[in-house]
Give the backbone structure.
Amino acid sequence: AQSVSQHNHHVILSEAASLELGCNYSYGGTVNLFWYVQYPGQHLQLLLKYFSGDPLVKGIKGFEAEFIKSKFSFNLRKPSVQWSDTAEYFCAVSSTGSARQLTFGSGTQLTVLP
Amino acid sequence: KAGVTQTPRYLIKTRGQQVTLSCSPISGHRSVSWYQQTPGQGLQFLFEYFSETQRNKGNFPGRFSGRQFSNSRSEMNVSTLELGDSALYLCASSLTGTPRETQYFGPGTRLLVL
């Protein structure tokens, strides 16, 4: 069974600071990786996703993530955060195969101080 | 295009009762998935429907059931409610539900069981 770990439960940063949120997954086969974001009072929405190819993927709002297969990691990064990035961030994985479900990490609450 | 809609948005029930939640996917989307979100367990997959057939089921008791109609709308039913069923229930839709597709989430139905 696949699993996802997000070790940072709550991150507090000041505006303009750089961000890196950790995500590690456990699965022996080929995986598809996603980062979703949930802004206060809003729906879960996709930030970016990775299937194959260039391990550095860019998403919306200046976010990017790097897939490191040897470390089973898919960390989310942003060079300079804004107050509007305050939200909960979820890493998720789906396996390439018959399973049609997303397995989510526990989420990281990011608070950006103005 | 209208997004995923869920009704009702809020529900209060008592233990032992049953509840039905509804989800209307994005027009053209034929796959609908349901997730339960709680502070303790995070986001957990319940089940996925495609063309009125349940294709995948998460690790939840049989009290949790669902169905999908020919217009792709889906309902989720929880019978004999328990206090621990209090949660945000999210519905997500995608075109065909393949593992690489983006799932689009609705706003959720917040269920409180007293």
Chain B has a mean pLDDT of 94. The two ends of chain B are 37 Å apart (CA to CA). Chain B is about 0% helix and 55% strand.
